[in-house]
Specification:
Layout: H1 14-29, H2 36-47, E1 52-55, H3 62-71, E2 73-74, E3 77-81, H4 88-92, E4 93-98, E5 103-108, E6 115-119, H5 126-129, H6 133-138, E7 140-143, E8 146-149, E9 155-160, H7 173-176, E10 181-183, H8 190-199, E11 213-214, H9 215-226, H10 232-247, E12 251-253, H11 257-273, H12 281-285, H13 288-292, E13 297-298, H14 300-303, H15 311-322
Parallel strand pairs: 1-9, 1-10, 2-11, 3-6, 6-9
Antiparallel strand pairs: 4-5, 7-8, 12-13
Helix pairs in contact: 1-2, 1-3, 2-11, 9-11, 10-11
């Protein structure tokens, strides 16, 4: 078995895949200092056709990450600033009566873009938050009985502040389940923070970013990652982890079938980024927390325990450690 991808889909070679994804990552690093895990996560979600939720305290670069990804791709990008007075029609669009034609004409909302930055999504009302549900899952919007397809590829990158912040509304489980991955930026280390002070004192580094790939190129990258091989043993491994969350006594809500599907898709994207044509168990286990964590609801008994500050993370660690690891990957 080779260590590099040898069976590339038509129109894109393994070298071209690595060169393009590396260029996107390098472009984002011009803005995001010392946060390779965040850049890797954003790339995985992009290649796996998911949606990304970045949750952290204010000022650590959540929106900057989303804008850096968008600026690195020559695509239609829209930013929606979620506020308490934002209406669902502002997101999806509205039908307006035209005196000239004497008919209602649909005016697309801000969601009609390849990359939608939903900034501080949990500062809007639940009604407005739910306007993204259909778009995030089905890549379409229904308004006044008519359905409109969204551009392809389509990606929502949402940011939110922790729920204990004033003026926030918790995202419902149905919407959290539509995010492939949730991650945190974290505070920068001292060296990265010093570099930020020097580089951003006079100018915004976002102005230096130039697109390194267009929409058609992103579609080829996605098709490349989609063809990464997943053996039945790896599929069984992913399913066993998901099943364990549903049967765990300290969890009130386990991982959905959608979560299992997205775990495998993300593992394929990560394997492609590592230069492999196949998924290994570590690809799956390493992504369990960011993909399952926000979907699970702990029971009260788990929340009340002092065994861990984050009961969901502890439970997932236990489940992964007890899951039978496949001996062969093909």
């Amino acid at each position: 078995m080779t260590d590099t991808i040898s069976s590339a889909p038509q129109g894109l070679t393994a070298d071209q895949f690595r060169e393009t994804t590396g260029a996107i990552a390098a472009s984002m690093r011009q803005v995001i200092d010392g946060k390779d895990h965040a850049i890797d996560g954003a790339l995985v979600v992009l290649l796996a056709e998911g949606n990304l939720l970045v949750e952290d305290v204010p000022g650590v670069g959540k929106t900057m990450l989303a804008r850096a990804l968008a600026a690195s791709i020559d695509a239609d990008v829209r930013r929606i600033q979620f506020t308490p007075d934002l209406l669902p029609s502002d997101v999806t669009g509205v039908s307006i009566f035209s005196p000239a034609t004497r008919e209602f004409e649909f005016t697309p909302g801000a969601v009609f873009a390849n990359i939608v930055i939903a900034d501080e999504i949990n500062r809007s009302s639940p009604k407005t938050q739910s306007s993204l549900l259909e778009a995030m899952e089905e890549r379409q919007v229904s308004v006044d009985g008519r359905t409109y397809q969204l551009p392809d590829p389509f990606l929502v990158v949402a940011t939110q502040n922790p729920l204990e912040m004033d003026g926030t509304y918790a995202l419902p489980e149905a919407q959290l389940d539509r995010f492939m991955m949730r991650m945190s930026m974290g505070y920068p280390d001292p060296e990265a923070e010093m570099l930020m002070l020097r580089q951003r004192d006079a100018e915004n580094p976002l102005t230096k970013i130039r697109p390194v790939v267009d929409v058609a190129g992103v579609a080829r990258l996605i098709a490349f990652a989609r063809r990464v091989h997943v053996s039945p043993l790896i599929e069984q491994y992913a399913v066993s982890i998901a099943q364990a969350t549903r049967a765990h006594g300290e969890l009130r809500l386990g991982a959905s079938p959608r979560a299992t599907l997205q775990l495998v898709r993300a593992a394929k994207a990560w394997a492609a980024l590592q230069g492999r044509e196949y998924v290994v168990p570590d690809d799956v286990s390493g992504l369990v927390k960011p993909i399952f964590g926000h979907r699970l609801v702990p029971a009260r008994t788990a929340v009340g325990t002092r065994r861990s500050a984050d009961p969901v993370a502890r439970i997932l660690d236990e489940i992964v450690s007890e899951a039978p690891v496949p001996v062969a990957d093909r």
